[in-house]
Each structure stands twice: as C-alpha cells, then as structure tokens.
Amino acid sequence: MKRRLLLTFLVGSGISPALPSSGKTKKQSPYDEKRLLEQNKRIQRENNAPDEFPNFVREGFTVKVVTSDNFVTRDSGLILRDIEVGKGDCPKAGQQVTFHYVGYNESGRRIDSTYLQGSPAKVRLGTNALIPGFEEGIKDMKPGGKRRIIIPPELGPPVGPSTFFSSKQFEVFDIELVSIQDCTRRTIGFYSDVVCS
C-alpha cells in the first residue's frame, strides 16, 4: 500500500521513477555490411551476374563499392579492370570505335547488350555520343581489349522517364573494343558528312 501511494505521488507530481525495461533491443544494425553483402550476392546469383561482379553497399545516400583488388579507381570516380589488354594504338577524339558491350545495373541484371542485338556499336569519340564514364573507360583501350567499368552516377547517363537508368545508381559495363577507324569530312556541293573507314 505504501509503494502504491509513493508511486501515485511520484507520477502525480511529475517525477517519474526509473522502471526496469523488459523490451527487446535490436542487436543487428540494419546496415550491417556483411549481411548486406550476402544479400547482394544472393540477388546477383539470381540475376546470373558474371564472375567478379562488384557489390554495392548502400547506407542511406552513401554507396560503398566492393570489388576485388584487380580494380583501379581513377580520380574521376570511374572504377575499371582490364580483363584482356588489346594490341595497337588507343583511339583518339574524332575516330570511330567499334565495340561490343553488356550493361548491368547494381543487382547484376543485364540491361542492354550489343551481343544480343547481333551487331557491335559504332561511335565517334569526342562527339558527346557516349556517357562521360563510358567514353573515359573506352578511350585508353586498344583493339582486342576487354574491360569491365563501373560508372558512378556523376559520370553516368541522364536520368528520367525516357531512359532505363535510375538516379544515384552505379552502372557496370563489360566492353570489348573491336576496332578503330579514322574519319574524314566529305563535302559534295551543299551536302557534308563524316565518313569513317
């Protein structure tokens, strides 16, 4: 009776006594890196991601890219790994590059592939025809070379409803540089174009 009276007095006067807690506490952080890496690997296996595919650990708005030691990070933020180094000269601005690629999102799902389309892509370098990270990744390759590049959002494509890219997503591309062609401007009367051979 005395305890009940004391408790009523303390609560009524605004002084709350410290009562023991019997609730469960969360032992595992929702951003536990090991748990997130295992979850990413499981999703990548389900998406048939290629070997040595990078992992992406998201904590709020920050993303940590986890790769093997074979990858190099450039000052721009582009991450790359040469699978096979080609032979010959690297392409220069104005030259046309012919290449195959397979594009993946962070979960390892294939989003595009020239192999499935049946023909390689052809683009002139230095004409803003490629996203900045892709052009940086291909401009120092040699014909016959194969490379995996991880493009951060800052070097990625524009985002929006007309593209298949999501904002703040890293994109992964496997590139095979097939050939390099020189290009010249051809003018016939009032008509002008660029011919690459």
UniProtKB/TrEMBL annotation:
Class in the EC hierarchy, top level: isomerase
Classification via Pfam families: FKBP_C (PF00254)
Molecular function as annotated in GO: peptidyl-prolyl cis-trans isomerase activity
Keyword Isomerase annotated: yes
Keyword Isomerase listed: yes
Domain (PPIase FKBP-type) ranges: 94-181
Annotated catalysed reactions: [protein]-peptidylproline (omega=180) = [protein]-peptidylproline (omega=0)
Keywords: Isomerase, Rotamase, Signal
Record InterPro entries: FKBP20-2-like, PPIase_dom_sf, PPIase_FKBP_dom
Signal sequence annotation: 1-20
EC number per UniProt: 5.2.1.8
SUPFAM superfamilies: FKBP-like (SSF54534)
Name the UniProt record assigns to this protein: peptidylprolyl isomerase
Species for this entry: Sesamum indicum (Oriental sesame)
